[in-house]
Design a protein that fits this description.
This protein is an alpha/beta fold. 62% of the residues lie in helices and 12% in strands. The protein has a three-stranded parallel β-sheet with strand order 1-2-3, with helices on both faces. It is elongated. The N and C termini lie far apart (44 Å). 19% of the residues are buried.
Length: 106
């Protein structure tokens, strides 16, 4: 399992690696990333100040022993590895540039 602060870069690398994650959110987008990881079934999260070994150990054990979590991790890793995020983002930016919203503003 990957235990980390929940930054988007580390979260993305964990998704790509296909391993369960336990996020210890401190600030900013880390709470949202933790909730998304949990909803996706590939991990769980705690607020960093509540992180204690006695609290984290059963969560990690569940994540590591769950066939459902491992299946979700594998499926998401496959989806992430088949995606070319940079190309997709460029295409979406080009589409937005051609849109009426871009030309006229909000």
């Amino acid at each position: 399992a990957l235990v980390h602060h929940g930054g988007i870069g580390t979260t993305a690398q964990g998704l790509k690696a296909g391993i369960p994650q336990l996020i210890t959110a401190l600030a900013h987008d880390q709470f949202d990333n933790g909730q998304r990881i949990k909803r996706a079934g590939v991990g769980d999260w705690l607020v960093a100040r509540r992180f204690k070994a006695r609290r984290a150990a059963p969560i990690l054990q569940r994540l590591l022993e769950s066939p459902e979590v491992h299946a979700a991790c594998g499926a998401l890793a496959k989806r992430v590895s088949q995606s070319d995020g940079l190309t997709e983002m460029a295409a979406q930016l080009e589409e937005f540039r051609r849109s009426k919203l871009f030309r006229d503003g909000p």
